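Task card 7
Instruction: Convert sequence to C-alpha cells.
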Amino acid sequence: MDWKQTALWKESAYNTMWCLIGCSIGDLGVILGFQLFNPAYAEAHPMNVMALAMTAGICTSIILETIILSRTQPLKTAFRTAVGMSLISMIGMETAMNAMDWALTGGARLTWWVLPPMWLAGFLTPWPYNYWRLAKHGQSCCGCSQSTPS
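Output:
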C-alpha cells in the first residue's frame, strides 16, 4: 500500500472531519451537560462522565454517518455500514479526545482553550486508519468516499 497518495490523504481528512463532528456533538454535549447541571457529580466521578460522553459521541457519530450514507443507500444498509466501517475510528477518536481533556484539565471539564487540542487529538488519532481503509478497501469512516481500492 502506498502511504503517499495526496488525494487519498485529503479525502480521508474530509471523512475524518465528519466523524469528528459527529463524535463531538454527543461527547461535548454530555460533558457540558454535567458541567452545567450536575458539576458535583462530574467532579466526583469524571470517569463515569467520560464513559457516558464517549458512548454519546459514538452514537451521534453513527447517527450523522447514517444520515450521510442514507442519501445513497437504504436506511438499514446505511446504518449497518456506518457501524461496521466506523466503530474502530470512533473509539480511537473518542479515547484521544477524552484523554486530552483529562490530561489538560484533570477531569471531564470543558473550557474554550481545551477544545482545539481535543479536536486535534481526536482528528489525528483515527486519520491514518481512515486513510488505510480508503486506500485498501475503498471504504471511509463515514462512507463519503468515491474512491476505489488500490
